[in-house]
Every structure is written in C-alpha cells, then in structure tokens.
Design brief:
3 domains, 9 helices, Nucleotidyltransferase, domain 5, 235 residues, 6 strands, three-stranded antiparallel sheet
Length: 235
Amino acid sequence: MPPNSDALITSLRTIVTAHYEKDTSPLLLSNVGVTLQQRGLWPSAEAEGKTLTKVIEDAHDPDLLIVRDKNSPAYIAVATGTTKKLVEQFIEHRAQTTTTIPDLDVLPRSVLLAFCVRQEGGKPVFLRKIPPFKYQTEAPNDEAANQFFLIDERYRRPGLKIIDVRTLTVSDRLDLQTKIAAWSRDHGVQLTEFYKSGSKKYANALERLIAAQPSGVAEKVMIPADIALILSQHE
C-alpha cells in the first residue's frame, strides 16, 4: 500500500469505528462510499483505480474487514475486528429470513416515491427510518446519517409514475415489488415497519398531500387558502 494512501485508510477506519459506536447493524460498503464522497475523499487518486473493496482488503487492517453474504453478492459490509462476528450473525439470520413481497397498496406513498424519484448520475436516495417516512435526494450530514436508509439506483425505478398504484401495469408493479423486496432483503429491513405508517388514515386530501412530501419540504409548502380549504373537505 503506497504511503500516501494512509490518510484514506485512516478516514475509513474512523467512519467504520464511528458507525459501530452508535449502531450494531452492518455498515454496508455502499454507505461507506457515500460518506467518503461527501468528504471529498473518493474516488481517490491514491487508490490507483482500485475498487473500494480492493482498497480495504489490501490495507490488511484488523479493524477494516470485508464481510460478504455468499447468497447475495451485492450485500457487502465493512466490520471492525470486534464487530465482525456480530455482522456475520446478522447476515446468517438475514439469509434465513424469507423475502417479503411488498404490498404496494399499503406502503406509504412517500416510501413508494423514494423508489421512483429521478436522481442525476445514478445518485442514491435516502429514506427516513422512523415515521413519518419521508425521502430526500440530498445525503444527510454525518450526525443524521444513521437516521436514514440508503436506496441505491439498482433498487429503484426512476421515473415510474406513482399516481395510483392500482393503475400500474402488471409488469411495472411486479418490477417495483421485486426491487423493493430485494432492497429490504439486502438491507435487513422489515417492510412491516412501513405498513404501520401506511395503514394510517388521514382525515382528508390535504393531510395526505403534506404527508407525501419529501423530508424538509412539507414545512416549506405554501398552499393557497382556497385550495387548502377544498383539499381539507375531500377524503
């Protein structure tokens, strides 16, 4: 490993250690990549064209360990020496869990939109982990990173219009279900957590409109009084 790559490895070690000090769930390699990009550390000239996985493996650092799910090549986590066993146990449990086919009719609209919104350059979307479930296209800061799920482009259908899921074609519906199911499996996310929010009954169209807005947008939405009145009078 070239001497000038020490700074990158040090940053990686800091990111990984900080994650496991707050959260015992696996830190996915894709999340590490996003954090490095936010800090302007990736792609790195010192990496010499290597993938992030290769950089970590070549470092031979006891607190930077790659852990793979042999049943799902896309699922790659980074662990420390002390958390490696926990991550392996999580992956083993995950492999034993049957993939849940999502019920699109029950999932909150904001969650569905997170899988369909367009992003430039294949950038990921971030979905809030706790209700109200809202998505955002800007990466959260380091302090809030653990409050969001990462949704990579491979799990999404950018541009798919979700006006009413009942009007989706059979192929579009199946494709979206497959992508959401793969995402929930690969990230160990229980879709039932979203259903609890999705089953919430809003009093009127105005409440539904506000609830469907991305994180940080609802507070800024200005709705003319006459339109707000009309929406509030319709279920």
